[in-house]
TrEMBL record:
Protein name (record): Flavohemoprotein
Ranges of residues in domain Globin: 1-138
RNA-binding recorded as keyword: no
Originating organism: Bacillus lumedeiriae
Chain segments carrying region Reductase: 149-402
Sites where the protein binds FAD: 190, 206-209, 391-394
Catalytic activities: 2 nitric oxide + NADPH + 2 O2 = 2 nitrate + NADP(+) + H(+); 2 nitric oxide + NADH + 2 O2 = 2 nitrate + NAD(+) + H(+)
Domain FAD-binding FR-type span(s) in chain numbering: 152-261
Signal peptide: none
Length: 402
């Protein structure tokens, strides 16, 4: 329990953390990695180089200061971040390191403004917040390892198949190398793949949504080949160009708080852009396997038909479901395309026309796409608690992404 004095001091720092937060977190990561380079084997280097991780941490620190007397407000964020931490292998022993370098960064960036009283208050507050994360993640590690077919950190899987789904996306099928059972997971969750790329000093970790329904004897991820430039394309290009059938990789157990509520019978809308189709495939395959009678709307936006992954498979599933409809949006309509319901961007008017107002909406895709779609759904009167969305990498502020 924090003292009222500590709460008051921490809350008083919120305005400066809002203004200087990214300066602090940028300094923090630079100093921490210099002292503990082994942590580079855990963090996503692309998110570091693009500044997304620094921004995400700055937002979290600011929120902690603002709501230090209402920590229950932070529970959804703690849950989301803890899933990512568990999937990457962040452990309790890492938190004291983070705390040490975060406090140093606050002091060094803010200078004399960060008095001993402020640093002491933040040290106390960090201890309380770190314990919440540690306890939450300990429960997640137990759940991952104790489930049927589960394990604690990373486990070897063999590439059972590699299938081209479109001009941009290829699927990889993984089976446990030891022949054990594939654990259950919730449709929409992701795994982390650990890659040892020749020439790279550090391990490369990437999180990919599972693109098949649970209950199979394999995991499937479907990976978009990014442009041949650093840092975003490092993992995807290696997977596309060098990981083949028979190769062995290391995977984490499934994680994530973005998933289909399979017990709810309310109308459901699955809305994706580009490679954001991957968790939606897991959800749609799950609904198809259940022969669901729910009202289902499946909407996918792609550059064109060549870049549209799973198009025949989704059409077939939608056709077989009793109350399902599908719609396709392409950047530009051409005579060669056999399917295209929307040319260009998906509008609020279109979404209002095809999605029932009582639907639960799941959204995944590039950040600008999600920002626009979520804004449209809100404009159309869909309540916030019925709009679910997933980010690839650290969460960012959607209002600034539209």
């Amino acid at each position: 329990m924090l003292s009222q004095k500590t709460i008051d001091i921490v809350k008083s720092t919120a305005p400066v953390l809002e203004e200087r937060g990214k300066d602090i977190t940028t300094h923090f990561y630079k100093s921490m990695f210099a002292a503990h380079p082994e942590l580079l084997d855990i963090f996503n280097h692309a998110n570091q180089q693009q500044g997304r991780q620094q921004t995400a941490l700055a937002t979290t620190v600011y929120a902690a200061a603002r709501y230090i007397d209402q920590l229950e407000v932070l529970i959804p964020a703690v849950t989301q971040i803890s899933h990512k931490h568990r999937s990457l292998g962040v452990k309790a022993e890492h938190y004291p390191i983070v705390g040490e370098f975060l406090l140093k960064a606050i002091k060094e960036v803010l200078g004399d403004a960060a008095t001993d009283e402020i640093i002491d208050a933040w040290a106390e507050a960090y201890g309380v917040i770190a314990k919440i994360f540690i306890d939450t993640e300990a429960g997640m590690y137990r759940e991952a390892s104790e489930q049927l077919g589960g394990w604690m950190d990373f486990k070897e899987f063999e590439v059972a198949d590699k299938v081209e789904e479109s001009s941009l996306i290829t699927s990889f099928y993984f089976k446990p190398k030891d022949g054990s059972q594939v654990p259950a997971y919730k449709p929409g969750q992701y795994i982390t793949i650990k890659l040892h790329i020749p020439g790279e000093k550090n391990i490369v970790n990437r999180q990919y949504s599972l693109s098949a329904a649970p209950g199979q004897d394999y995991f499937r991820i479907s990976v978009k080949r990014e442009a041949d430039h650093e840092p975003a394309g490092k993992a995807s290009n290696y997977l596309h160009g060098h990981v083949n059938k028979g190769d062995v990789v290391e995977l984490s157990a499934p994680a994530g708080d973005f998933y289909l509520d399979v017990d709810n019978e309310a109308p459901v809308a699955l809305i994706s852009g580009g490679v954001g189709i991957t968790p939606m495939m897991s959800m749609l395959e799950t609904l198809a396997a259940k022969n669901s009678k729910r009202e289902i709307v499946f909407i996918h936006a792609a550059r064109n038909e060549a870049a549209h992954a799973f198009k025949e498979h989704t059409q077939q599933m939608v056709k077989e479901l009793a109350n399902a409809r599908s719609y396709v949006a392409y950047d530009k309509k051409t005579d060669e395309q056999t399917m295209c319901d929307v040319e260009g961007r998906i509008s609020a008017e279109f979404l209002k026309e095809v999605i029932s107002s009582d639907s639960i909406c799941y959204v995944c895709g590039p950040v600008p796409f999600m920002g626009a779609v979520i804004g449209h759904l809100s404009q159309n009167g869909i309540p916030e608690d019925r709009i679910k969305f997933e980010f690839f990498g650290p969460a960012v502020e959607l209002s600034k992404a539209q």
